[in-house]
Amino acid sequence: MVNLTVDNKQVTVPKDATIYDAAKSAGIKIPILCHDKKLHPFGGCRMCLVEVEQMKGRLIPACTTPVTEGMIVRTSNDEIVKARKLVLELLLLKHPIDCPVCDAAGDCDLQNLTYEYKVNCNQFVDEKFNHEIDYVNPIIERDMNRCILCGKCARICDEIVSYGAYSVINRGLEAKIGTEFDGPLNCEFCGSCVSVCPVGALISRPFKFQARWWALSKTKTVCSYCGTGCQLTLGCKDNKVLTTVYDEDQGFHNGQLCHRGRFAYQFVNSDKRLTTPLIRKNGKLVESSWDEALALVTERLTQAKAAPASLAALSTAHLTNEELFLFEKLFRGTLGTDNIDHSAGFAHAALTEGLKASFGTVASPSEILDIQKSNLLLVIKTDAYETHPVIGFEINLGVKRKGVDLRIVSDKRGKLGKLPGAQTTVHTPGSELLLLNALAKVIIDAGLADAAAPGLSELKAALAEVSLEKAAAATGVSADEIAKLAKDYAAAEKALILLPIGLGYPGHNAALAEACANLAILTGKYGKEGTGLLVMGEKNNSQGAADLGIHPKASGLNGSAIIDACISGQVKTLFVAGENPVVSYPNRAKVEKALEAVDFLVVADLFLTETAQLADVVLPAVSFAEKSGTFTSVGRKLQQVKQAVKPVGLAKSDFEILNTLNAALGGQKYLNQSELFAEIAANVPAYAGLSQAALGDEGKLLPVAPSAKLVPVAAQAAAPVAGKLALVTGSALYHSGTMSRFGEGPMLVCPNAYAELSAADAKVLKIEDGDAITVKSDTGSVSVTAKVGYRLPQGVVFAPYHFGEGSINAVTDGKAVTWVTVGK
Amino acid sequence: MIMPLLKGLQITFSHMFKKPVTLQYPTERPAIKPNFRGLHVLNVSHDRAKCVACYLCPTVCPAKCITVEAGEDAKHDKFAAKYEIDMLRCIFCGYCVEACPVDAIRMSETFELANYTRADFTFTKERLLEKK
Ligand code: SF4
Ligand code: SF4
Ligand code: SF4
Ligand code: SF4
Ligand code: SF4
Question: Which of A124, A232, A635, A681 would you call most buried, defined as having the most Cβ atoms within 10 angstroms of its Cβ?
Answer without folding.
Answer: A635
